[in-house]
Amino acid sequence: TDEILSSDIINVTSSNHPTKQEYYEYLCKLFKITPPAFNESNKSFKKVSNQKLLDTYKINLKFKSPLEFTF
User: Fold this and answer.
1) Residues whose CB falls within 8 Å of the CB of residue 22, separated by 6 or more in sequence, listed in order
2) Residue 49: count of CB within 10 angstroms of its CB
3) Helices (H) and strands (E) in the chain, counts
4) Distance (Å, rounded) from C-alpha 28 to C-alpha 6?
5) pLDDT tens, position by position, for the chain (71 residues)?
6) Which candidate, 16, 10, 8, 18, places its Cα nearest to that of 61?
7) What's the confidence (pLDDT) of residue 45?
8) For position 13, what pLDDT does the model report?
9) I want to staple 63 with a disulfide (CB 3.0 to 4.6 A). Which of 10, 15, 39, 68 is the partner?
10) Is the dihedral of CA 12, 13, 19, 24 positive or negative?
11) Cα 33 from Cα 55, distance rounded (Å)
12) First to last CA, the chain
């Protein structure tokens, strides 16, 4: 149906999302600050999809990745 249920979860995120480490390093380089140290043994992650957002609302994203944002 076209109706979105109140219990639906819609992820508002980029289509191509970098890892947390990649994103933090990008921002630190951009703002000329020292990036945090990342523990290689704790690399658990979850992948968040925006497919429901794109399919339900038929939108086009301006940026495919947060690494393309400009400040």
Assistant:
1) 67
2) 11
3) 2, 0
4) 38
5) 456 556 678 888 889 988 889 999 999 999 999 999 988 765 666 778 899 889 988 888 888 898 988 77
6) 16
7) 67
8) 86
9) 68
10) negative
11) 38
12) 38
SS3 4: coil
The Cα–Cα gap between 49 and 3 comes to 20
- Is the dihedral angle over the CA atoms 56, 58, 62, 65 positive or is it negative? positive
Residue with tokens 């704790």: 42
- Residue 66 sits at φ, ψ, to 5 deg, of -65, -15
Q: What's the rounded Cα separation, in Å, for the pair 39 and 42?
A: 6
d(CA 9, CA 53) in angstroms, rounded, equals 9
Question: Tokens in use for 13?
Answer: 């995120």
